[in-house]
Write a structure and sequence with these properties.
- It holds the Pfam family CbiZ.
- This is Adenosylcobinamide amidohydrolase.
- It comes from Methermicoccus shengliensis.
- Keywords: Hydrolase.
- GO terms for molecular function: hydrolase activity.
- Strand 7 and strand 8 form a beta hairpin.
- The chain is built from 3 helices and 16 strands.
- The protein has a single domain, classed as L-amino peptidase D-ALA esterase/amidase, CATH 3.60.70.
- The chain is an alpha+beta fold.
- The strands form 5 sheets. The protein has a 6-stranded mixed beta sheet, with helices on one face. It has a 4-stranded mixed beta sheet with strand order 1-2-5-6, with no helix packed on it.
- The two termini are 30 Å apart.
- It has helices at residues 52-62, 127-147, 184-205, and strands at 3-7, 11-16, 20-24, 31-35, 37-42, 69-74, 82-86, 89-95, 100-101, 115-121, 124-125, 151-152, 155-156, 159-160, 164-169, 175-176.
Length: 208
């Protein structure tokens, strides 16, 4: 796969040799659009909400990274990122469960602790397929957290309150219309994310 990964103490950048088609819930540059990459940006554990757009822009410039990126934030150590690849799918994950939550049960809060998932697929995906891939990644993330037996208020945790997923495609190679669990692409995403989340949490929190 013609993709690139840049990792420092403060950033993890996943991109391709050219623009990618992206679907993400990233707080900066999210949505469905064309972009040059996805950056997982480290913030301190005592980080207080601020002008995230300006923070992201300044740090991208300082790191000589492209401005046209989706940006997500994490208090996890970037060096604990789990990187994996299977066929046309590459994956980068950071995770911490200090802010574990059970969707629909845990009250909303702004505590730190998040699971950030970046997938880059060296193939042609329709926008609907990109969204389907985000769905599969989210399902696999929930399954991974449940595998670890984390409970919040008597309920099984499904993630944290600030999880983020980004899926990019190079828009070349094989064409995909679907990425659910019944497809080879969806199955691959599920395997990489489910295993990657468990490994990332083990590295960050010592929980397996």
């Amino acid at each position: 796969m013609s993709w690139r990964l840049f990792v420092s103490e403060e950033h993890a950048l996943v991109g391709a040799s050219g623009p990618i088609r992206l679907a993400s819930c990233a707080p900066i540059g999210g949505g469905v659009r064309n972009a040059l990459g996805v950056v997982n940006m480290s913030v301190p554990r005592d980080f207080a909400p601020c002008d995230l757009d300006e923070l992201a822009r300044r740090r991208l410039v300082d790191a000589h990274l492209p401005l046209d990126c989706a940006v997500m934030f994490t208090a996890a150590r970037i060096e604990n990122a789990v990187l994996s690849q299977r066929g046309e799918v590459a994956c980068a994950i950071t995770a911490g469960l200090s802010n574990a939550a059970s969707i629909g049960h845990t009250s909303p809060c702004n505590a730190l602790g998040t699971i950030n998932i970046i997938l880059l697929i060296d193939a042609i995906l329709s926008d609907a397929c990109l969204i389907n891939a985000v769905q599969s990644a989210a399902e696999a993330k929930c399954a991974a957290v449940m595998d670890m037996g984390v409970f919040v208020g008597g309920e099984r945790a499904t993630g944290t309150t600030t999880d983020c997923v980004a899926v990019g495609s190079t828009q070349r190679g094989k064409h995909h219309e679907y990425a659910g669990s019944g497809t080879v692409l969806g199955h691959t995403i599920g395997r990489l994310v489910r295993r990657g989340v468990r490994r990332a949490v083990a590295l960050q929190d010592g929980l397996e």
